[in-house]
Amino acid sequence: MDYKYIEQLIERYWEGETTLSEERILRDFFSQDEVPAALLRYKPLFAGDARLAEARLDAAFDDRLMARIAAEGLMPEQPVVVKARRVTWRERLQPLFRAAAAVAIIVCLALAAEYPLSQPEEEPYSCASRTAGTYSDPQVAYSQVSDAKPMLSDTLQSSAKHQGQAE
Amino acid sequence: MDHFKQTVLPLKDKLYRLALHLVGSAADAEDLVQDVMVKAWTRREQLPGLDSVEAYLVTTCQNLAFDRLRQMQLGSQEALDSAQTAAAREATPLESLSEADLQDWVNRLMDELPEQQRLMMHLRGVEGQSYRDIAQLLGLSEENVKIQIFRVRQRLKERFAQVERYGL
Predict the structure, then answer these.
(1) Using CB atoms, which residue from B105, B125, B149 is nearest to A16?
(2) Each residue's pLDDT tens digit, B1-18
(3) CB contact under 8 A, B16 and A68
(4) Do A74 and B41 lie within an 8 Å CB cutoff?
C-alpha cells in the first residue's frame, strides 16, 4: 500500500473532498493490525467507524421487542372470529320441550301428592250403598225386582223346607 | 402491524449503531433501540402518513440518547470528577499515547460536537451515506450538510495538529 496515497486521502478528507469509496479505503486501511507509526494517530478516527459499521443486533431482538410490547399492554387484542352454526328446529325448541317436560313432571308429582289427601272417606258398608245407583231408570229397576221376586220366593221356601227336615 | 414489520424493524441495526455511537454501551444501546421501537409502535397508525419513517426513527433515537446521556451526567458526579482529573493532569506526548487513549480522545472530540453535526458524522462515517441522503434524512439542503461536515473535519484536523505539537 502506498502510504503517500493514504496521506493524500487524509488531506482530502479534512477538506471534505473525498468520495464515499475513498473514505471506505481509509476505513479499511486503518482497520488493519499493522499501521505505520506516522499514521497511527488517525487509526481511532477511521477504525472506530469501521468497527461500529459491523455492529448488529442479534436475531432474538425482534422476539424481545414483541415480548416487551406485549408486557406493556400495547399489543392489540386479537378480534374474536365468530363462526356461524346451523341450528335445527329441534335444537331451537329443545328448551321448550325441556320446560314442558319439567312442568309435566311437577304437575304429576303434585297430583300424586294431592290424590290421597283429597279422596273422600269411605262410607260405612250398607245395602243401600251397595245397590244405590245401580239402575238409574226406575222402570228398569222395578222390572228387575219383579223378575227377582219368584227367585226369592223359591229360595225362601226351600230354605224353610230344609229347616223343617232338620227339626 | 405489517407496516411496522416492513418499515420499522428493518432499521433496527442502523438505529443500534447510532445508539451505540451515542451511548457507548451495547446493553444501553439495545435498550435505547427498544425504547425507540416501542415509541414507534404506539404511533404505528400515524407512521404511514410520515414523509420519512427513517427520519422519525433516527431523530427519536438521537433525542432519547441525549436525554439518557443528560440523566447519566446529572446523576454521576463520579464522571465529572474523572473529567476534572483528566483535565488537570499533565499533557502526554502523542508518541506515548496508547491506541486506547487515542480512541478515548477521539470519542471525547465527537462527544463535544453539536448533536446535529455528530449525527451527520455518524451517518457519513459509519453508515456510508451520501451528502444527499443525509440531507434528505435530516430535512436540510445538501450544501448545508457538506458545509457542516467540512467544519467538523477542519476542527478535527486542528485538534490533531494541537495534539501533535503539545501532546494530549
Answers:
(1) B149
(2) 788 889 999 999 999 999
(3) no
(4) yes
Report d(CA A79, CA A81) in Å as an integer.
6
Q: At what angle do helices B12-23 and B53-75 cross, to 10 degrees?
A: 30
Residue A124, CB-side half-sphere exposure with 13 Å CA sphere: 0
Cα B148 from Cα B154, distance rounded (Å): 10
Q: Do A45 and B156 touch (CB under 8 A)?
A: yes
Predicted confidence at residue A54, as pLDDT, reads 94
pTM higher than the cut 0.95: no
pLDDT band at A163 (very low <50, low <70, confident <90, very high): confident
Considering only CB atoms, which chain B residues are within 8 Å of A14? 153-154, 156-157
Given the C-alpha cell 297430583, which residue does it identify? A111
Question: What distance in Å separates residue B87's CA from the closest CA in chain A?
Answer: 20
Kindly report the nearest CA distance between residue B154 and chain A, in angstroms.
Answer: 6
Residue A121 has pLDDT above 70, yes or no: no
Residue given cell 477521539 in the structure block: B106
Cα→Cα distances A146→A142, A151, A154, A159, Å? 6, 10, 14, 20
* pLDDT tens profile B111-162: 899 999 999 999 999 999 999 999 999 999 999 999 999 999 999 999 999 9
Lowest mean pLDDT among A53-57, B5-9, B78-82: B78-82
Provide the H-helix boundaries in chain B: 2-3, 12-23, 26-42, 53-75, 77-88, 99-111, 115-125, 131-138, 142-166
Residue for grid cell 425504547: B35
* Residues 48-87 in A contacting B (C-alpha not used; CB under 8 Å): 48-49, 52-53, 55-57, 61-62, 64-65, 68-69, 72, 74
Q: Is the CB of B126 less than 8 angstroms away from the CB of A53?
A: yes
